[in-house]
Amino acid sequence: MFFRNFITGWYSQDMSTMVESPPPEFIKTIEWDMMDKTKFFPLSMLSSFTVRCALYPLTLIKTRLQVQKHNDIYTGMFDAYGKIYRYEGFSGLYRGFWVSSVQIISGVFYISVYEGVRHLLAQKNIDSRVRALIAGGSASIVGQTIIVPFDVLSQHLMMMGVKNGDKLAFNTLGIAMKPGLSKVALTLEIAKEIFRRDGIVGFYRGYMASLAAYVPNSALWWGFYHFYQDELHAVMPSWVSHLFIQTVAGTLGGFTTTIITNPLDVIRARLQVQRIESMKSAFRDLWVEEGVRMFSKGLSARLIQSATFSFSIILGYETIKRVSVNDEYKKYVRW
């Protein structure tokens, strides 16, 4: 009897301890101070380059659809892909890529500012969605300041292959396309012509339009990402992969943000390529040419690009954060 009471009492005490001390909840968002930066930065750059390399043709097609007047050259995304591949070859889909790939460097600054601002705001107990909104906007300002000159060059290179009959349809700089001209030589010719006409300021043509397009885009995207993540986490069963929830949230955030900001992106592209003097002039010209269709110009390509980009970036970003997390947090991280 004594032995049975002893065992029963010990078992009850042990069970009560288990009930009172449940395992800690898993970490939903891996924060900046939880990661090993020596792992995070190299892997982040590699992931960013891989995604941009895979999706660059969509960026090029989107830009050409946005810059053309009406549907003079391409009737849509698939028509553009077919014509570019037929007349310019596979390399035509990657015009300006090597200049655009400098975005990998700006991406390091972007993500450092984003995570740094989120970390600072977290210390003030600000809501996670508001933190993401503010941090996303701040990161975009830094990123655009670095990347706009390269963006201007890459977009001119993107448009150099577009022909209307036997003439280049978009050659606003009047660059002579000599036979055998290498990509490096062509890029230098474009850079020299921009500098000759406008000086250093020419490389920041459309800078304010870029900020107007990308700062809200970045702020909204991160804000919607955390919003959708929280909502999906609340309705999904506990056995559903947290990484899957995050990739779906990123994709939905990309869709929502793209639909809201598309007209601003069209105006930015036209300012940088067609050398229009102001956002007001670009908006007026676009309204006269397209009317209400300006809100959907290039939207199909941009939606596909945004959804694919958002899915891929979040998949890479959140996977790298899990790989880079410090050892003491690994048991609280859920895949």
Please tell me about this protein's structure.
With 335 residues, the chain is mainly alpha-helical. 70% of the residues lie in helices and 1% in strands. It contains eleven helices and two strands; from the N terminus they run ααααααββααααα. The protein has a two-stranded antiparallel sheet. A hairpin with a 2-residue loop joins β1 and β2. α2 packs across α5. The protein is globular and about 60 Å long. Residues 1-24 have low confidence and may be disordered.
Set out the fold topology:
Blueprint: H1 2-20, H2 37-67, H3 77-88, H4 97-100, H5 103-122, H6 128-159, E1 163-164, E2 167-168, H7 183-198, H8 207-235, H9 242-274, H10 279-290, H11 299-324
Antiparallel strand pairs: 1-2
Keywords:
globular; 11 helices; mainly alpha; two-stranded antiparallel sheet; disordered N terminus; 335 residues
Radius of gyration: 25 Å
The chain-level structural class is mainly alpha
Strand runs, count: 2
Oligomer: single chain
The H/E string reads HHHHHHEEHHHHH
Q: Helix fraction?
A: 55-70%
Order the strands across the largest sheet as they lie in space.
1-2
> What is the CA–CA distance across the termini?
48 Å
Q: Enumerate the spans where pLDDT stays under 50 for 5 or more consecutive residues.
A: 1-24
Q: Work out the helix count.
A: 11
Q: What is the makeup of the main sheet? A: 2 strands, antiparallel
Strand-residue fraction? under 5%
The general outline is globular
Mean pLDDT: 78
